[in-house]
Amino acid sequence: MNSSSTPASFDELLRVSARIGCLSFGGPAGQIALMHREIVEERQWVSEDQFLHALNFCHLLPGPEAQQLATWIGWKLHGMRGGLAMGLLFVIPGAVVILALSMLYALAADLGWFAALFTGIKAAVLAIVVQALLRIAGRALQTRFKQVLAMTAFLALAVFSLPFPLVVLGAGALGMIVASRRPDLLGVKLSSAPPLTSPRPWGGTLRSIAVGLVIWGLPLAAVFTLLGPDHVLWQIGLFFSKLAVVTFGGAYAVLSYMAQQAVDGFGWLRPGEMADGLGLAETTPGPLIMVTQFVGYLAAFRAPEPFTPIVAGVLGAALTTWVTFVPCFMWIFALAPWIERMENARALKGGLAAITAAVVGVIANLTLWFAIHVLFRATAPWAIGPVDMAMPVLSSFDWRVGVIAALAGVLIFRMKLGIMPVLGICGLAGLMFSLV
Question: What residues does each domain of the chain span?
Answer without folding.
Answer: 123-188+202-230+242-287+322-435
